[in-house]
Amino acid sequence: MCAPEIIGTVRDTVARAPRAGRRAFFGLSAAAVLAASAAPAAAREPRGAVVDLTHPLSSRTPVWPGNPPFAMVPVAWDRMGGFNQNMLTLWEHTGTHLDAPVHRRSGAATTDALVAEDLVAPLAVVDISARAERDPEAVVTLADIAEWESRHGRLPERAFVAMYSGWERRLATPEQFVGLDGNGVPHAPGFAGDTADFLVSERGIVGAGADTLSLDRSADQDFPAHTAILGSGRYGVEMLANLAAVPPAGATIVVGAPKHIGGTGGPCRVLALT
């Protein structure tokens, strides 16, 4: 759309121009109008980066102890006159995936009932990687949240809070990522139960995420973080990738959640807009 003042100027000038010169003038004025209308676009802010927070899925993707691995089997081929297709076999909670509230509490929201607006949110990344490097039982504490807020201000309304523990450094050896001890108990960082309670009740988060296989510290068999977050109707995302490439504050997370009816969760594509 041309601004009214541009249209008015062109109209007045055409009225004053000699009839013989109007055709040439129209060519020049059209170019001027196009240039004027395009000018604001050149002044737009450059778009920020898009960071993929999703791990690729393969048969080597670590899974929770007892779960079968991801599998992909070709079932159709273009060389036979059709289209290439694969059959996928996986449990819902495989790879970078979403936990719907029903995953922890029967009767709660399933994947198809999640509110779309909650899947796009301000992203806060809490870095405990230095502590987790020394201690696989490390958790996100209330002190970590207080320190984050002292640096970046109060958590935004309806934020998504992600734990960065640096655990993806272990992905080359899936057994180390799972962290099973001699008794078959997994060990990896997560959110402390009281921290999860605080984020839900005092900061009103829409969801929380972790770069490990669980929102909870893996050895916590009572799953207090799952209970606090999913039990309050929020969602979780586990096995996030590349959180070190995202600023602690100021980014936006976009969760491409699955939407199968009755689902307890499922693999998703997660992006951070910085």
Largest sheet: 9 strands, mixed
Strand content range: 15-25%
CATH homology superfamily of the largest domain: Putative cyclase
CATH architecture call of the largest domain:
3-Layer(bba) Sandwich
Description:
By secondary structure, the chain is of the alpha/beta class. The chain folds into two domains: 4-42; 50-273, Glucose Oxidase, domain 1. Helix content is 26%, strand content 20%. The strands form three sheets. It has a nine-stranded mixed β-sheet. Helix 6 runs parallel beside helix 7. The longest helix is centred in the first third of the chain and has 21 residues, at 22-42. Mean pLDDT is 88; it is low at 1-44.
Any chance you could write out the topology, listing elements then pairs?
Layout (H helix, E strand, L loop, with lengths): L3 H13 L5 H21 L7 E3 L18 E6 L8 E5 L7 E3 L20 E8 L1 H6 L4 E2 L1 H11 L7 E5 L9 H5 L11 E2 L1 H9 L5 E4 L13 H7 L4 E4 L12 E6 L8 E3 L1 E5 L1
Parallel strand pairs: 5-7, 6-8, 7-9, 9-10
Antiparallel strand pairs: 1-13, 2-3, 4-10, 4-12, 5-11, 11-13
